[in-house]
């Protein structure tokens, strides 16, 4: 931080110490405002461009929900970034924040302010995007062959990597319709690397369920990525764990749920301020149960609470009788339940009270989140 605070004899703002201006004011500005502030003076630009400052600025940014999607009438879909407010704030509302420029794409992973986009057009491919800096670069990985399971920063090397699942599908090529089958398994793609993806094989005893990982939320905490896997036919669900340092798989025990045959559930994981949480919803999304992994090493789960959603109030507000879909996320110190219903995205607190609503065509509730960053990455130039 010494480099950032050595502004020289002239203070940044008269009457205030430079440390206060830098580490209490500038570091809290949104990225757009911070970029504009660099035009004030060369010293402002130098101070706000150091790596220490940008890392601290990134950590101070609010957590944003990445939601989908808008149809402008032409059949083209966009990904919107939506802000969800703090439950304790007055007149809480979900708000539109920004819209990605790319069309016909979906956000499939996020990490440290970076988004992994999957294009659905012909000749589909992936790209990496930083919405704060408007940088975007394609990845040489075909969407129709690979499915991303998650994106992470490999701490031993500092590299950003993507864990891919090879679908191992039969492919038909050429006039003679030659059929071949790839080896399949999981691959590691290093952003900015010119080397092909490394195949690390299948997780042990999980081939039959791994293909479903990409449809649920991946939770990155304690140096591991986590997915919830349903295996009721095998006597119990489990959590698949990927160690991002050793890049190896293992299994953890999931909570034991009492499931009635006529009341199916859908379950998924979420990050509860550094603790692994799991939510379970009944089929009509009227009841949400929340579990917490209190003892990570010994895999001991504890039941936290039961939330009864205001289903009647939601249906009266939205004027529809559609089905509800709910997810649980953790944002800025509070647990939130987001309900997708008839073109609405609704926010419910832990008491089951409706505290926010947002009308959005073809809205899709998800658990991907974004903390904006202005930290530069060299892999954008390499990929371009």
TrEMBL record:
* InterPro entries linked: F-box-assoc_dom_typ3, F-box-assoc_interact_dom, F-box-like_dom_sf, F-box_dom, SCF_F-box_component
Segments crossing the lipid bilayer: none
Domain F-box, chain residue ranges per copy: 14-54
Residue intervals of the F-box associated beta-propeller type domain = 104-338
A Pfam family matched by this chain, by name?
A: FBA_3
Please give the NCBIfam families that the UniProt record associates with this protein.
Answer: F_box_assoc_1 (TIGR01640)
Protein name (record): F-box associated domain-containing protein
Species per Swiss-Prot/TrEMBL record: Triticum turgidum subsp. durum
